[in-house]
Design a protein that fits this description.
- It is a single chain.
- The protein is an alpha+beta fold.
- It has one domain.
- The protein has helices at about 15-20, 50-60, 85-95, 120-130; strands at about 5, 10, 25-35, 40-50, 75-80.
- The strands form two sheets. It has a three-stranded antiparallel beta sheet with strand order 4-3-5, sandwiched between helices.
- Helix 3 (about 85-95) crosses helix 4.
- The relative contact order is 0.18.
Length: about 140
């Protein structure tokens, strides 16, 4: 995993998530779902208590709105204790996989995770890069 700035030190992000899981605190995850027939990749985020895999599995079982469109099971991408980092990571994944269709893109996402008009977009992207590094 990447590194996250924390009180002037670099702490391994995996360790922070592990501590949060052990303490029963909320964690934030990003995930992808792929449509095997079209090759489209949907990117999403979720939050909850438990391991990152448990959070993704619960989100996928709700049922997920993309299941009926032929998208396969959700696959964990990354986990964090920072909701802003997860939100930025989701947007970066959408862009990596072709951008939202509302923006003329080809990903499995109809809209962006963060509106281009959202004044906090740069903050979310910066937090994602701090936690996980660049997506592409």
């Amino acid at each position: 995993m990447g590194y996250a700035p924390y009180v002037g030190e670099l702490i391994d992000a995996y360790d922070l998530v592990s501590v949060a899981v052990e303490a029963g605190q909320t964690i934030y995850v990003t995930y992808t779902k792929t449509n095997a027939q079209t090759g489209e990749v949907y990117s999403g985020r979720a939050s909850g208590i438990g391991t990152p895999e448990e959070v993704v599995d619960r989100r996928d079982a709700t049922p997920h709105h993309k299941n009926s469109e032929g998208f396969g099971p959700a696959v964990l991408d990354k986990a964090t204790t920072d909701p802003q980092a997860a939100r930025g990571r989701e947007q970066l994944l959408i862009e990596k996989h072709g951008s939202a269709r509302s923006a003329g893109g080809t990903s499995g996402n109809a809209i962006n995770g963060i509106s281009s008009r959202n004044q906090k977009k740069a903050t979310y992207i910066k937090k994602a890069i701090e936690w996980f590094g660049k997506v592409f």
